[in-house]
Design goal:
The complex is a heterodimer of chains A (418) and B (484). Chain A is mostly helical. Chain A has 15 helices and 2 strands. The two termini of chain A are 38 Å apart. Chain B has 484 residues and is mostly helical. In chain B, helix 8 packs parallel to helix 17, helix 9 packs antiparallel against helix 12 and helix 13 packs antiparallel against helix 17. Classes of the chains: A mainly alpha (418), B mainly alpha (484). At the A-B interface, helix 2, strand 2, helix 4, helix 5 and helix 10 of A face helix 2, helix 4, helix 9, helix 10 and helix 12 of B. Chain A: InterPro entries: DUF3526. Chain A: Keywords: Membrane, Transmembrane, Transmembrane helix. Chain A: This is DUF3526 domain-containing protein.
Chain lengths: 418, 484
């Protein structure tokens, strides 16, 4: 401990260390301030949307005279609110939609709509705490440690230093360790403050601190392995930089291409075109053809499924559902394969600590692809619930009234089970 | 200034690099990376283009082959457009991966584009999109640093600079020689880019754009060459020079791009499409429902028409009143929808403008924007796609509405729900569906693209000049110290 304190004091006398620490502190503060702001922004946007959507429903409903019209004109807002740790890793939320408005029509035609943010900004990416920790932190550590041993050798103090220290060659490890500890501290202090401001549960902070600490230690070890050899500082820097490039960029890129080749996904365009054809063909098909396909899935409506007029709402909603049934294999395959790709990227991340940290943080912050798929599943469940609610009135087992619509399902976000 | 001296220094520097294993290994690795990125991006974009174009053809064909039916059915049948990647997307795919590729066009609605390529891509972290643009903008500067960080500092460290001075090589000549040598490496690195630009040319990109695109990247790499030798000349030791340069690279290439976007996101928050959809619906309540010709919103239209044709009832009109209403309401609705869509696009464009203010801070940012605008893979091109799609939507919907107004009798139209024969008469033949226009990929106009990228080119030149000045003054300072 005394060693560590001495080395910390020593490190702080060097201007390059002080500047690096200041830079890290500012980056950390900036990224977290932005994260907090962004999450607030999303929350306030969501609050506005919720009240607007409610007003819209309240306006539309009284004008509807029958169950079919009510189902057709009522739009339902669904959303995935930011989690309490979202400020630390904004993840895919600026890229994949976290809000949808859906109605009782075929869901497959609606669910891929994207209420997107600015794609050019998404392309450039944002500076969040996750980026600082997974991408920049290793570079800062390399910058602080690459020349430690080589400088002592260059100035012919190496042997003397090791001989005069009680810890022998360990003194250089202490020195490196002290610098990493300092760096870790200046990065997590803003995080702890942000955690307090965000009002998140304090123990959830460990979900973020643990990967930061492990990532820092990983690079400490790598740096020691390289710099303790008898090589020049410049060579050490080149090797470490190369390592960084390989694990942060090359491994993920190669892994990604391999995974994408390995697990093929159905094309979205095909899902949309097939769905549209099925829904539209129904207008020209005999009505019983649609109804019998509908009854395969919903035999409970067999006694109510007779169609007499040239247009009946129950037939209309039945072919909407048949449209979904038609593409279900493809859309199920799409979500399964997306999940499959992600699971395999998990294996790839075993070779890339920065990617592992990125996945860990976005998982803790619930801003990863898994969370997006979870949200989509949640919207599907809600849509199914809407159908369960509307069918009795559409098929005439229950009578439509505005009062009966009091029971209309309201969306509530699905809670993650840990 | 003696050109022979400059070349002499440059040749000596080349010989030195050939002997250093680090330089050779780094160059080979970098060259392989660039080639791999070029080939893989080329293949990927080609596959994407093929898939989207074939979907587009299918969508057009199925529309035109629809059987005889009521024109309004076709308004709701709708049409799909697919966004084809730009020719230069093989070098810089830009926002292609981040924007939806397919857009459903139908009456009364403007949908958003679905299925961005990133939607189903394997998520591999922030630095996993190795495109040629990324390789040239971010990785090559790193290679140049590794090769050139010691170029001048080494001479200072070894005291050889002093010897050079006595041999009547001026400091500026020495610096220039080192810079020329490094620029030579950059020039070799540009060869693969030139080859892929030829592919883009063959796919129909204009020669002006391609030439300027190349020039932009050449200036960018030139910037780095001068910056590297400049910072090297200011450093007493090679190790300091390397630290200096790596920190510079980190700030310019890795931190700065995200800094600008973050500030832009804070400065101009976006409301998003759902919010503006909600605003549209509430504004719409005054426009009227085009499906309901009895909507009070259309009573003025009715009396106007009755007066124009000098008849008493809508049944007596020579045109189908329902079709007229559909046309009129689509027109009003579209005006409203466009107003909100334009607002949203203007907001996004403003965000991008704010982010681009920060381009002055980094040549890596300037080349990014330059490259996107030139390659037509930027936000404006995406907006252009949305506008083109909207124009196509409005065109076919209104053509269908005019069929509705002119070819269908009002009497049949109102009875088609109850009378099968009337229903048959309200169908128009399949040949009419050929009214659908093609949806070719249209780049923004040459002048727009040039105008957008010119400021970025100026920023690059500014950096070029500044780093050259830094290099020359650095050299003079060194030699003054040596003299003293």
């Amino acid at each position: 401990m005394a060693n560590l304190i001495r080395e910390i004091r020593f490190a702080l006398t060097e201007s390059i260390v002080r500047w690096t620490l200041l830079l890290a502190f500012m980056l950390s503060g900036f990224s977290l301030a932005n994260g907090l702001y962004e999450v607030r922004q999303q929350e306030s946007q969501l609050a506005t949307l919720k009240s607007e959507a409610q007003k819209d429903q309240a306006y539309v409903l009284p004008q509807q005279g029958d169950a079919g019209g009510a189902a057709y004109y009522m739009l339902h807002l669904t959303y995935d609110p930011p989690s309490e740790l979202a400020f630390a890793a904004l993840g895919l939320r600026d890229e994949l939609p976290w809000k949808h408005r859906v109605k009782m029509l075929a869901l497959e035609g609606q669910i891929y709509e994207a209420d997107q943010s600015n794609p050019e900004l998404a392309y450039l990416g944002k500076l969040d705490f996750n980026y600082l920790v997974s991408i920049l932190l290793p570079l800062l550590i390399i910058g602080l440690l690459y020349d430690l041993d080589a400088r002592e050798r260059r100035e012919s103090r190496y042997e003397l230093l090791c001989a005069s220290s009680r810890r022998g060659k360990g003194v250089l490890f202490d020195r490196a360790f002290a610098r990493v500890v300092l760096l870790f501290l200046v990065i997590i202090v803003p995080f702890l403050i942000a955690l307090l401001i965000s009002g998140a549960k304090f123990y959830s902070g460990f979900l973020v601190l643990a990967p930061v600490l492990l990532h820092a230690l990983f690079w400490l070890v790598i740096c020691r392995v390289v710099t303790s050899r008898k090589i020049e500082g410049i060579t050490a820097a080149a090797i470490l930089f190369g390592t960084w490039l390989v694990v942060t960029s090359l491994v993920p890129v190669v892994g990604k291409s391999a995974v994408e080749r390995w697990v093929e996904v159905p094309n979205g365009g095909e899902i949309l075109l097939t769905q549209r054809e099925t829904v539209n063909d129904a207008w020209d098909l005999p009505k019983q053809a649609t109804m019998s396909r509908f009854l395969e899935v919903h035999p409970e409506w067999r006694d109510y499924a007779g169609i007499e007029g040239s247009f009946e709402w129950k037939w209309y909603y039945a072919f909407q559902q048949v449209g979904d049934q038609q593409v279900e294999p493809m859309s199920t395959a799409l979500s399964q394969r997306i999940a499959g790709r992600d699971a395999r990227m998990g294996w790839v991340s075993a070779l890339s600590p920065p990617l592992m940290v990125d996945r860990w943080l976005t998982k803790s912050a619930e801003t990863d692809i898994t969370q997006h798929m979870r949200y989509i599943a949640c919207v599907r469940d809600f849509h199914a619930e809407l159908r369960r609610f509307h069918y009795p009135m559409l098929f005439g087992r229950e009578v439509y009234s505005v009062e009966a619509m009091d029971e209309l399902p309201q969306f509530s976000p699905c809670v993650v089970q840990n | 200034m003696n050109t022979r001296n400059v070349l002499l220094v440059a040749t000596a520097e080349w010989c030195y690099w050939r002997r250093s294993s680090l330089g050779v290994i780094a160059s080979v690795v970098a060259l392989l990376l660039v080639l791999a990125s070029l080939i893989s991006t080329n293949l990927r974009i080609d596959t994407e283009r093929g898939a989207r174009e074939s979907f587009q053809a299918t969508a057009e064909q199925t529309f035109k082959e629809q059987p005889a039916r009521h024109p309004h059915r076709m308004v709701h049948y709708g049409h799909y457009v697919f966004r084809s990647p730009a020719p230069l997307a093989i070098v810089d795919p830009g926002v292609d991966a981040y924007t939806g590729t397919v857009l459903f066009l139908e009456g009364h609605r403007q949908n958003s584009a679905a299925f961005s390529p990133r939607y189903s891509a394997a998520q591999a972290g922030p630095l996993a999109e190795i495109t040629p643009a990324f390789a040239y903008q971010v990785l090559l500067p790193l290679l140049l640093i590794i090769i050139g960080f010691a170029s001048v500092a080494r001479e200072r460290e070894g005291g050889t600079a002093y010897l050079l001075a006595t041999n009547s090589v001026t400091p500026t000549e020495l610096w220039l020689g080192k810079t020329v040598a490094l620029s030579g490496i950059a020039a070799i690195a540009l060869i693969p880019l030139a080859i892929s630009l030829v592919f883009a040319l063959m796919q129909g990109e204009s020669l002006t754009i391609v030439a300027l695109f190349f020039l932009g990247y050449a200036i960018y790499l030139g910037c780095w060459c001068t910056l590297i030798t400049a910072l090297s000349s200011w450093s007493r030791r090679s190790s300091i020079s390397l630290t200096f340069l790596l920190v510079t690279w980190l700030l310019l290439c890795i931190v700065a791009p995200r800094f600008g976007t973050t500030v832009a996101g804070i400065a101009i928050p976006l409301d998003g499409k759902i919010q503006s959809d909600l605003a549209v619906t509430s504004a719409l309540r005054d426009v009227g429902d085009g499906h309901n010709a009895n909507d009070p919103a259309f009573s003025r239209l009715r009396s106007q028409l009755l007066e124009q044709y000098n008849v008493e009832t809508v049944e007596e009109l020579p045109v189908n009143f329902r079709g007229i209403v559909a046309q009129a309401s689509e027109k009003d609705l579209t005006a409203l929808l466009n107003e909100f869509a334009d607002d949203r696009m203007a907001q996004e464009a403003k965000q991008t403008q704010v982010a681009r203010v920060f381009n002055v801070l980094s040549p890596a940012l300037a080349i990014k924007s330059f490259s996107l605008s030139m390659a037509s893979t930027d936000l404006s091109q995406h907006h252009q796609f949305l506008r083109d799609a909207e124009a196509l939507r409005y065109d076919f919907v209104q053509k269908l509405n005019s069929l509705h107004a002119e070819k269908l009798s009002y009497a049949d139209d109102i009875r088609r729900g109850s009378d099968d024969r009337a229903e048959q008469r309200t169908r128009v033949s399949s040949e009419n569906w050929r009214l659908l226009k093609d949806f070719p990929w249209q780049p923004r106009s040459l002048s727009e693209r040039l105008l957008d990228s010119l400021p970025q080119l100026l920023i690059l030149l500014f950096w070029y000049i500044c780093s050259a000045w830094l290099g020359i003054t650095g050299m003079q300072r060194v030699f003054k110290n040596n003299d003293g």
